[in-house]
Every structure is written in C-alpha cells, then in structure tokens.
Amino acid sequence: MKIERLIDLILGMYKKHLNIEKKQEAILKYSLTVLLQSIIGYTLTLGFAWIFDIFWPALMIIITFSVFRSFSGGAHCSSPLNCELYSVISVNVLAFISKFISLDYQYVMPIAISTMLFSFWAVAKYAPADTPAKPITDPNKRYRLKKYSLILLCIWSTSILLYFKTVHKGNMIILASSLGLLFQSFSITKLGYAFWKGSDELLNIIQMKRGGRVC
After folding, report:
1. Read out DSSP for the chain?
2. Less packed terminus of the chain by CB within 10 Å, N or C?
C-alpha cells in the first residue's frame, strides 16, 4: 500500500468518527505524512545497519540528528522515497565511519570539538532553517527555535567535554553522535542545501534510468 493511500485511509477513519474542519484535516494529513515517513525511513535505515553490524552507531546518529533537526530545521528531499533512500545511505555511511575509524582519544576528541564549534556557528547563523514549502514566518517562533537549538547544543557540548575530562579515551558512540550532529549542522547551511538538492536530483535520475517513478 502506498503511503498516500494509507494516510487517506487513516484520515477517513478520523473523519468518520470526528467532525474535522478542512484546516484541521490539512494539519493532520501533514503530521501523519511526517510520522509515517520517519517510521519507514528509520526502520529501513536501522534494518540495514543491523545487517551490517553497525546498529548502535547508526541509532546514535539518528537520535542526535533527529533531536537537533526538530529545532534547527534543515534541507529536505523532494519526495518520501528520496528521503528514505538518503537516510539509509547517509546514516549507514556515517555509522561505518564511526565503527571503523580509529577510536583513539587523539582522533575522537578533535572531531567532537570541531563539530561543536562548527555547530555553534551554523546554528547561530542559519537556525531555524526552513523550506519554501513550509516557511517559518513568525519571528517569535524563529527566536524560540534558535534559542532551543543553542540550549540543546550547549547541553550536548557540556556532556561531551565532561566525558573527555573524566574518561580520557575515545568512544564509538561519542564519535557517532558527533558525526550525526555535524551532518545535521551542515544541512542547515547554504552549502548543505545545495548538497541536498544535488543528491536529491541524482536520486531522481537514478530512479528514472531504472524505469522507476519518482514519488
């Protein structure tokens, strides 16, 4: 069953039992779309991660990426299918790097600290990063989202620094979280938007050459 048909089926059940206005229906449809896309994307991503024995770093990347993305925003693909493919590829590549890169303290700490500094710059300059399809026009909302992004980043940074101060060694999960945050922070920059757009167009071309339909 296509995701659009599933959403219409769920909406039909809601409308059957509740009196929903057009505006409420649109909001509910958008929320269901985001929820179902996230569930499908995360399930596929973690499924491949489990097969390749990189489940835990992949899970940490997803958690870090998703939590920060909920406040700071970022670039999106043009279709649910592209989002799912992009998630599977990018998260698992980063998880592979987290697992197989040297976990020595002298490598992990500079990566984490560099990520921290870059993220503070990106969030201060670009967050919240919206899209033309769903612009954030309320200045108060923009202020709140930026503030929450910075607070969350401060909590993450403090936790990482305390870890390095007390443990004095590298860690695969710390590295995975750092790469997840780095990828998310990159996604809100102008270069990140351009990279997302190029990757999205490449996925569309691949699907067309394979005879598939871009959803």
Report:
1. --HHHHHHHHHHHHHHHS---HHHHHHHHHHHHHHHHHHHHHHHHHHHHHHTT-HHHHHHHHHHHHHHHHHHB----SSHHHHHHHHHHHHHHHHHHHHHS---HHHHHHHHHHHHHHHHHHHHHHPSB-BTTB----HHHHHHHHHHHHHHHHHHHHHHHHHHHHH-S--HHHHHHHHHHHHHHHHTSHHHHHHHHHHHHHHHHHHHHTTPPP-
2. N
